[in-house]
Please model this.
Amino acid sequence: MTQPLISVIVVNWNGRDLLPACLESLDKQTWPNMELIVVDNGSTDGSRELLAGWAEHRQNTRVILLPTNTGFCRGNNVGFSHARGEWVALLNTDAVVEPDWLAELVRHGDLHSRIGMLASKILLQNPRNVIDKAGHLIYWDGQNRGRGTMAEDVGQFETPEEALWPDACAALYHRKVFEETGGFDEDFFAFGDDADLGMRARLLGWKAWYVPSAVVHHRHSASFGAYSPLKVMLVERNRVLLAVKNFPWPLLLQGPFWTVKRLLWNGYSVLMRKGSASRFLATNGWRQTTLSLLRSYLGALKLLPRALRKRRRIRQTRRLSNSETLDLLRRFQIDVRELTLRD
Model:
């Protein structure tokens, strides 16, 4: 039986120091039928020269040089437009994969059952044996977080099972998922884009599966920094866009209530000196924190008309009813305390 071609897309932006370990781990994959597409987003740190030398003598490898930083979303969409594989894997430059990563992911895919999204077990590179993400969970206002984030890996996520959607840091998709959804929403630029893609795919009846044997080691936020004001602005803005595009109206109208509740818990986390909000405030101060939030909501407001137009198209083609959508979100809901008090 012919093994399907897997196209692996790596989007790079000034990741010269990260690329060698990432690419070497792909060289060691046991899956024999793969092609590699590296999309460089206007790097200025010597990445392009490194990629040119690395790809020169490798078959089934293509390097695409974009003139400017178009963002994670467009970079992957460009990569997909050149992909020939039945399956498409995405991998961040700050991730290193185990040799059987692709083989384990594709083994759990099932087009007949519409299991077209496969989630890796993502561990932090430092500290080791700490979970980054084992699938995803979501809060009622659109904010989402990795399942098990920052918990010690003691074997609690070793069962293959349904996931809400995969983290695009290291994920596998059937190409039909990209074709039916239209790929990443380039208005997102970066962050929350995989949640939006996953949500749109779920509304179309696609399913996701978590594969604990597909192990990845991740240097979290190596590109932007864990407490970057730009990252926080994009995360908060994009969760609004995700909700506007994909949530049933009754839940969407409740959004302000759930956001206020989350922000109050963030305030409590600051007092307790726990969680990412506390660390962001300690790193950037009150002024920058306030400005980041204001820019988030102003940015979402600016993009609101486009998001509503996209919502109408999504509603026309969706296969899940409102009640089925709410049930899906309920099954993969994250508690507000876990969302705010755990870093």
Observations:
- The longest strand covers residues 207-218.
- The chain has two domains: 6-218, 229-341.
